[in-house]
Amino acid sequence: MREVLDELNQWTREGEEIAIATVIETWGSSPRPLGSKMVVTRSGKMAGSVSNGCIEGAVFDEAQKVLKSGKPKIAAFGVADDVAFEVGLACGGHIEVFIEPMSGLHAMVIERLRRNQPVTLRTNLVTGEADVVENWTPAASELAHREGDVFVEPYRRSAHLVIIGAIHIAIPLHRLAKLMGYRVTVIDARAKFASRDRFPEADELIVAWPDEAMSKITVDNSTYVVILTHDPKFDLPALRSVLRKPAGYVGAIGSRKTNANRFDALRQEGFTEEEISRVHGPIGLDLGSRGAEETALGILAEVTAVRFGGTGASMKAVRT
User: Fold this and answer.
1) Same domain for 147 and 220?
2) Where are the alpha helices (DSSP H) in 196-278?
3) What is the domain count for the chain?
4) What are the two backbone dihedrals, phi and then psi, of residue 218, each rounded to the nearest 5 degrees?
5) 14 and 141 share a domain?
6) What's the CA gap between 176 and 154, in Å, rounded?
7) d(Cα 174, Cα 167) in Å, to the nearest integer?
8) Residues 164, 119: one domain?
9) Most buried among 173, 220, 277, 297, by the most CB within 10 A?
10) CA dist., res. 183 & res. 224, Å (int)
11) What is the pTM assigned to this prediction?
12) pLDDT tens-digit profile of 64-101?
């Protein structure tokens, strides 16, 4: 829903009649994952994608029929090999799309997303009836999925990368994170490090000690904390502030020896092995990195793998 949020807000203000198409099932090659959205107005506007182009025209036509009848439907589409190749696939596939008129419940979900509040939408694909679960927080890796005739779409808060330690690696990291759609907060007790000149794209700069800053930040499984200070007087307060909170990711820069020393100190303070094991340290994936940019890429790659439940392995070695 977030990928078409701006259009939905604008079209709603304009009083448009809107149909929402959602990918609910795929077989074979599919260019878009479950939950992908395409939205269509009766006046002919469209936004989003359910197939990267190969069946959008047909979905548009079906959406017009749904808007005319007012009744939702499941539309199945086969993607032929030659058409699939044109949109970057090796072979064809099969896609099912649920098309429904936008309702007041969708407007409620949109408002929750605008406020950056977690919410889950559950839709009965037979009756078209839906309900919203407002206080349920999905697991970090849980995505849109089907449970029999019910399609479940968990919307967590926007992914939030918290960088503790405004060192040189943090500069390309914050830029990469913004490119990937994260909201980014940079924390450092040293004002000359956490400056707008160094971090022009950060959503928030906090000049404070890590524990003080983290006490003001909502931490849940959409929060990804990267500790880059490499100094015990910053590292330990930062780790203390997040290890007992449900952060989606906690990583700490430094060698194995450095992290072992940190972990020993935390054990002495009463942190459990389970709590300590949550720390990804040394941080990042092994990309053979040398410079700050490559190191930042390795860090964000690991965060991404944890966020979406990936293995971090080469695609050549992964069975799909």
Assistant:
1) no
2) 210-214, 232-242, 256-268, 273-276
3) 2
4) -70, 125
5) yes
6) 25
7) 11
8) no
9) 173
10) 10
11) 0.77
12) 999 999 999 999 987 655 554 444 344 456 889 999 99
